[in-house]
Design a protein that fits this description.
The chain is α/β, with parallel strands linked by helices. Helix content is about 30%, strand content about 25%. The strands form four sheets. Strands 3-2-1-4-8 form a five-stranded mixed β-sheet, sandwiched between helices. Strands 11-10-9-14-15 form a five-stranded mixed β-sheet, with helices on both faces. A three-stranded antiparallel β-sheet has the order 5-6-7. The N terminus is likely disordered. Bound molecules: beta-D-glucopyranose.
Length: about 270
């Protein structure tokens, strides 16, 4: 529980009447770092990107304290977009494999709405990367390579969140086991690049995508020329997804019976 009142200087009057004045706080919660930046209505940065390392096994309380701290350093904003590294539906978190305990059924959207007194939208981090990077035509598969492996597929711009990262890929190991950051550190770039090439081939067969968009911080370690239908997308495009999220229809249905029992992966939250 937060025990102190937010001390942010937030503007009282609506700024939306001014051209491009709507300021969005875009937050990306990652397994190793929590990043935040203010963007205007067209997705142009209004501030630098601020980053605070994610504590090991971060709890909701720790993550919210960091988001507040980042926000206070950036200035005023009108709404908040959050990319979360786990399964999220209607602003409620169900899994957080690379964070700590306490996330299952955590109402992140509601909590942040109370902290900031601003409208909040929350979506999976790979979905947000996709929203900012897709063309909106055909089958576009998004894979993010960070601490974990994120995934989403867009069909003519309509998104479906995937958890391919936890799907078996090679000798009983999952995509995340083989392509996540801990393995990259352990096995080295050459090994990781070989596995990534294999993964791209497998994913093409499974999805017949028109485009594969590869995002996430570890794309900087890619050492081969990807096939023509594969595009490496930038973090900036990922941030733009935080703006697109406000035009997107959340495809997740209202949680039905059993929704809170979504199976978590690796570590129960
Ligand atoms: C999570 C995904 C997330 C990905 C990247 C995986 O471990 O299960 O939901 O998108 O990491 O953060």
């Amino acid at each position: 529980m937060e025990n102190s009142k937010p001390t942010l200087r937030l503007s009282r009057r609506s700024r939306s009447s001014q051209k491009n004045a709507l300021r969005t706080l875009v937050v990306d919660i990652g397994g190793t770092g929590i990043k935040a930046e203010l963007l205007d209505e067209r997705g142009r940065p209004l501030t630098n990107r601020a980053r605070i390392p994610t504590p090991k096994r971060a709890t909701p309380h720790q993550v919210i304290a960091i988001i507040r701290k980042l926000a206070m350093g950036l200035g005023e904003f009108d709404r908040v977009s959050v990319g979360f590294p786990g399964v999220t539906k209607n602003g409620v978190i169900y899994t957080a494999p690379n964070l700590g305990k306490g996330w299952n059924n955590f109402k992140l959207k509601e909590k942040l709405r109370r902290v900031f007194k601003r409208p909040v939208r929350v979506a999976n981090d790979a979905d947000i990367q996709g929203l900012g990077s897709i063309s909106g035509r055909g089958i576009e598969l998004v894979i993010t390579l960070g601490t974990g492996v994120g995934s989403a597929v867009f069909i003519n711009g309509t998104r479906l969140h995937l958890e391919l990262g936890h799907h078996p890929f090679h000798k009983g190991k999952t995509y995340e086991d083989e392509l996540g950051y801990p393995t990259l550190l352990k096995k080295g770039k050459k090994w990781w690049n070989k596995r990534l090439r294999e993964a791209i081939e497998d994913l093409k067969i499974a999805f017949n995508y028109d485009r594969l968009l590869l995002g996430g911080g570890n794309t900087k370690y890619i050492r081969f020329e990807p096939p023509g239908d594969v595009k490496i997308v930038s973090n900036e495009e990922g941030l733009l997804g935080g703006i697109k999220l406000w035009q997107d229809v959340d495809p997740t249905p209202a949680p039905g019976p059993g929704a809170g029992k979504l199976r978590s992966v690796k570590r129960p939250t």
